[in-house]
Write a structure and sequence with these properties.
The complex is a heterodimer of chains A (114) and B (109). Chain A is built from no helices and eleven strands. Chain A is mainly β. Chain A is globular and about 35 Å long. In chain B, strands 2, 4, 5, 9, 10 and 11 form a six-stranded mixed β-sheet that branches. Chain B is mostly beta strands. In chain B, 0% of the residues lie in helices and 57% in strands. Classes of the chains: A mainly beta (114), B mainly beta (109). Chains A and B meet through strand 10 of A and strand 5, strand 9 and strand 10 of B.
Chain lengths: 114, 109
């Protein structure tokens, strides 16, 4: 079955630690995205990538980093520079790169900073 | 600034009809999406409107009026499994998705 797999589903981190969230898709989609979801707010775009070895900052990229070495994979690193990292993180992909098509989301990763 | 407004929470009865409104003020418009998100899960696509009018898809319909900056999602014959958050998102002139905070729909027996 095609889809997007995020791991881990739950993650606890101590302050000052970097963590990496995995996102893998087997949909053969060119475009991939990372969103952050906080209670009472809309999804906010962290980073996106429309092609391998290229990615762009979204609205809230500070304190985060990504890589896109393979079409299937788009990992997100939450660095210690991110001041308020506790959130629900969603990875998504789409067939088209202009967002006029449906976004396919992973199940999400919930990060809690202790 | 760009803004998407949706009611925070709505309650409806099983078997009834509910309309979830979304108003938007964005820099240009290239379409409006509705997604459903059950608690703790991933959003799933419901509809995409780019032209004015009503689009029906089974029990769910989505309406768009570009001149009014307004859309609604209509859910008929409500079922308990429809309890979820419904997210409205607008694609602006730069092809950036602007998301509303979502409407939590509670279905009561």
């Amino acid at each position: 079955d095609g889809g997007i797999t995020q791991s881990p589903k739950y993650l606890f981190r101590k302050e000052g630690q970097n963590v990496t969230l995995s996102c893998e898709q087997n949909l053969n989609h060119d475009a991939m995205y990372w969103y952050r979801q906080d209670p009472g707010q809309g999804l906010r775009l962290i980073y996106y990538s429309q092609i391998v070895n290229d990615f762009q900052k979204g609205d809230i990229a500070e304190g985060y980093s990504v890589s896109r070495e393979k079409k299937e994979s788009f990992p997100l690193t939450v660095t210690s520079a991110q001041k308020n990292p506790t959130a629900f993180y969603l990875c998504a992909s789409s067939i088209v790169t202009d967002l006029t098509g449906e976004l396919f989301f992973g199940e999400g990763s919930r990060l809690t900073v202790l | 600034g760009q803004n998407i407004d949706q009611p925070t929470e709505m309650t409806a009865t099983e078997g009834a009809i509910v309309q979830i409104n979304c108003t938007y003020q964005t820099s240009g418009f290239n379409g409006l999406f509705w997604y459903q998100q059950h608690a703790g899960e991933a959003p799933t696509f419901l509809s995409y409107n780019v032209l004015d009018g009503l689009e029906e898809k089974g029990r769910f319909s989505s309406f768009l009026s570009r001149s009014k900056g307004y859309s609604y999602l209509l859910l008929k014959e409500l079922q308990m499994k429809d309890s979820a958050s419904y997210l409205c998102a607008v694609l602006d002139s730069n092809y950036q998705l602007i998301w509303g905070a979502g409407t939590k729909l509670i279905i009561k027996p």
